[in-house]
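Researcher: Here's the sequence for the chain we discussed earlier.
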Amino acid sequence: MWENDSLTASDTAATGDRAQLWLFTVTIFIGATLLFLVQPLFAKMVLPLLGGSPSVWNTALVFFQAVLLAGYGYAHWLMRWSGQRNQIIVHVCVLAMAALVLPIGVASGWRPHAGTPPALWLLGLLTVSVGAPFFAVSATAPLIQRWFARTGHPHAHDPYFLYSASNLGSVLALLAFPFILEPALSSHAQSTVWSIGFGVLTVCIIGCGAVVWRCTDAASSSPWPNAMERPNWRQRATWMVYAAVPSALLLGVTAHISTDIAAAPLLWVIPLTLYLLTFAIAFARRPLIPHWLAVRAMPLALMILVALFAWREPIGVFLPLHLLVFFVIALMCHGELVRHRPGVESLTEFYLFLSLGGVMGGAFVALCAPVLFNTVFEYPLSLTLAAALLPSATPRANRGDIILALVILVVLVGGKIAASGLGWQPHTFVVPGICVAFALLIFARQTRPFGFGLCVGMLLVSSAYALMSSEVLWRGRSFFGVYRISESGDPTNRSLVHGTTNHGGQLMAANGDIGPTAYYTSSSPIAEVLTATQVRGPGQRVGVVGLGSGALACYRRAGDAWHFFEIDPLMAWVAVESGYFDLIARCAESVSESVPVVLGDARLTLAEEPDGHLDVLVIDAFSSDAIPIHLLTREAVALYMDKLAEDGVLVMHISNRFLNLSPVLARIVEELGYAALRGARNKIDRDIDIAGTKSVWALIARNQATLDALALSEIWGPLETSTARRVWSDDFSNLLEVIRWTG
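Model: Thanks. This is the structure I predict for it:
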């Protein structure tokens, strides 16, 4: 009978241990899910206020990392200066106060103003709107792990494996957002779901607190398991560095993706999902990918990317390559964090410095790099630092490493200077071929990480210089993107490039004549529309959203009233004051008056214009090849039409390499009851138009009679039939349905 009683007691204890483990695991899982659902949700809410720039996401990530750091700091303070039961009471009170600001939404009264740094304004908005609930939830992971260590559970001596469950929750949340929540629910509905989840988390935390409350007396009299000396500053610096580099790379890869496709949550979450997945793998009790394999794979993956770094096409090859290298580097760095983790008594301190490193890496890329660099130099710099972090017994560089770095510099930089002096233009494959050869030599130096990193950095910088076009006249950078101005050909074609996309420019003949290029030449769809509307009579009132090089100003006549609406002050300087483009200046001379440029996001500045004021409104806003989604919603189109006269027309530029936007507009036009056409210039006759570019435009009017009266050419036809299940609005969009999955 005693034996049976003993077995029963043992079974009961095992059942209790499993129940405790499930409770703590589910709690930490829900907390992580909430943390990473709110990030793309709120960033999407605020996009319309800042022009849909990819920098919105990068800045938001830095904010969330900073608040996560504050949450970890709060958890560390609570553990060091408060008793176990007081910790439970205090944290439940914090959760209750945070619940007062729910549901999550953009704080009323917050609108950006010209002259206010966009990044600082966005950080303030995030603090007011979502700071309190995010702070309360962010402390969950370290608190629950530390509380679990007090339960007497068989695994209580090493609760770090719970961090793996935390990151799995984060990964699932990020995947659910673009593939389940965003296509099915509006932003308001998602905010409601998040608030319900916050309530469930609070109940679970109270349950964990009740378990710990009962264990407090017994635990307080026993020493901490695996007691170690407190970490020194060398160990803390190690944690920060191994956390900072993946964080910096995360933002670099994200900007690389979202600049050319769309500033949308679907594309933001891919790198962030990989980033969190590496945490989940590294902190698991039995990692799916062993740390030694990540250490071995990282140099090989890195050198493949470094050798081909300057290549961008085909995107189906090089985009996955960037993501793969980022994943391997992050996995290696996070594996090193696990290897250097302290005992449980320093658990909250470990997470505090891990978070501090993440904030430092993210802040450098999102806040410092746009000020320090006029190109995306932070990305290759982060790759260089990652190379130097390879674990090794002999990290220092030797004389051979330094010599190889100098040889790379001389061959690539010196060769470029010599070739330019002789007027030579190296073959397309010469520099990449040299880079591949150097990459093979550098790969052999991975046993000395500092030397390995030195050579990697030298190859990245030197190859970028060697491949840099001598035709580049200027480079610049702002919150809204990276720009360059180049010049080529005869007659001279001067172009403005944002990211990787040509945004037009001017063609300059030897006799001094000038004209617009790219999408805006005299044979383009937009030129045909502007010419057709001018037949109505003099004094046309035109608004243009998106300044670029000012190419469209060439179609202004004397007596016409034009306004440009531009969000980026740097673009206003480029088009009007820089001297690189004089399209606006020349046109102003010909009509004896200047063209006003209104700074600010078009949705906000247009709203201040009188209704029925414009005859033509052109929406031509780009961020590299991405069109800000908030300019393509039902509310946006309704606003545009309100500003047009009864017979006014709306012209929207929807050219895109990766997205088919015609069905989106077709659905909106159908919903609002307007008429529309699609104009596509698919072939360019270089004998007639040497500076033209293929483009697609949509033309919208209140009725078909207005469109018929323009008597447009055969390049104009009906918009594609809408395949969208729901109309895009400020509260809903679904990028999945418009991606060009094939060619």
